[in-house]
Each structure stands twice: as C-alpha cells, then as structure tokens.
Request: fold
Amino acid sequence: MTQMIFINLPVADVRASTAFYEALGATRNEMFSNETTSSMVISDAITVMLLAHERWRDFSSRKIPNAKESAQVLLCLSRDSREACDAAVEAAVAAGGTADPTPKQDLGFMYGRSFDDPDGHIWEVVWMDMAAVEASSPTGA
Reply:
C-alpha cells in the first residue's frame, strides 16, 4: 500500500476554506466530509483535512494558534516548473489567499514561492532541477 499523508488543519469557516482549496485544484471527498470537515484530495497520496475549530477540539485539547500571527509548520508541495509555482501562487491570491508570506527563493536549480490560505496556514510551492542537483553532488547522485 502506498504511504499517504493526511494534513489536518483547523479552519474558521469550512465552506470558505473548501472553496479556496477547490480553486487550487483539490477535490472534496464527500465520503469523509460533512458540515464540520472537508476532506480535500490534493493527490493520490496527499489529503488535507479541513476541520472546523469545534471539530478540531475532538482530536486535541491544545489551543488552536492564530496561524496569521504564528507558524508551527510550513507545508510544501512540489511543482513541475517555475511557471507552475507562479501559477499556484496566482491561483491562491485569486481565491483569497496572500502571496509570498515567506521569502521567494531562486537558487537557479531551485525556485520557490509561497502563499497563505484564508486561515494563515503557509503553503510553499517549489520546483527543483534534479539533473542540476545530481550533477553538483560529489557522489553524482
């Protein structure tokens, strides 16, 4: 079985967050969604679980931090090109997100941008030229 990752995020408004992630290309899995939870499929191996604050509290009694004021994680997805990174950020902004809460990266062989979702969770999108990385490695791999 392929290993999967389920990213659980507390959100203030499940419907608004669902619309945001759908605008970025995620698909809502109705089997695992309801009025307090949206299961957003990013790929065959990645699902983002959007949990209303009251639903989140069923899993953790820890305080929900304001992600617009503090950061605990930086989530990062790969893209096939620099242009795809830029397009992802543009789509996020058009859907109500904020562009580049973290510094842009352009190292030649690697390019990265970022965006905030409506709740302030930071998503990075990165492209890497693996041939250039392998060529610069002392072992060639």
Notes: The chain has a mean pLDDT of 94. Residues 47 and 125 are 16 Å apart (CA to CA).
